[in-house]
UniProtKB/TrEMBL annotation:
HAMAP family: SmpB. Required for rescue of stalled ribosomes mediated by trans-translation. Binds to transfer-messenger RNA (tmRNA), required for stable association of tmRNA with ribosomes. tmRNA and SmpB together mimic tRNA shape, replacing the anticodon stem-loop with SmpB. tmRNA is encoded by the ssrA gene; the 2 termini fold to resemble tRNA(Ala) and it encodes a 'tag peptide', a short internal open reading frame. During trans-translation Ala-aminoacylated tmRNA acts like a tRNA, entering the A-site of stalled ribosomes, displacing the stalled mRNA. This is SsrA-binding protein. GO terms for molecular function: RNA binding.
Length: 159
């Protein structure tokens, strides 16, 4: 009898939580990621990281830099496995044009915030973002704490 695979509980492969702390997220795009076979297998095992990853544009194409996908120990020996290699992002011409124009403006950048499964395909959520100053980060932290405190107060009053 064939073994059944465990159903994956979440479609998320990797998150870049630091991006939400360092940037104001203005617009989100869904991009396909061009990968090799060993990279897809590693993603299935959850060996991907998006921390400090960002997107650059060369020759009218989008490229993901800084994403780290660790090879599995069982990866074939005839593959050259580069965990930090640059991967091409698959976006429509309209989305690419919109992102390129926005990045040329001062203070805007494109960061990868999430990598997830959509069916059998690996997708990457890329966001158009604007950098935060340190006082903005503190304000965001204060707002988050205040919202948390409001929730506690509301729960306490409804008991």
């Amino acid at each position: 009898m064939a073994k059944k695979k465990k159903a994956q509980t979440s479609n998320t492969i990797a998150l870049n939580k630091k991006a939400r702390h360092d940037y104001f997220i203005e617009e989100k795009f869904e991009a396909g990621v061009e990968m090799q076979g060993w990279e897809v297998k590693s993603c299935r095992e959850g060996k991907a990281q998006l921390t400090d990853s960002y997107v650059i544009f060369k020759n009218g194409e989008a490229w993901l830099l800084g994403a780290n996908i660790q090879p599995l120990p069982s990866a074939s020996t005839h593959f050259v496995t580069e965990p930090d290699r640059t991967r091409r992002l698959l976006l429509t011409k309209r989305e690419l044009a919109k992102l390129i124009v926005a990045v040329e403006q001062k203070g805007h950048t494109v960061v990868a915030t999430a990598m997830y499964w959509k069916g059998h395909l690996v997708k990457c959520e890329v966001c158009l973002a604007k950098g935060k100053a340190s006082h903005d980060k503190r304000e965001t932290e204060r707002q988050r704490d205040w919202n948390r405190e409001k929730q506690r107060l509301m729960r306490a009053t409804h008991r």
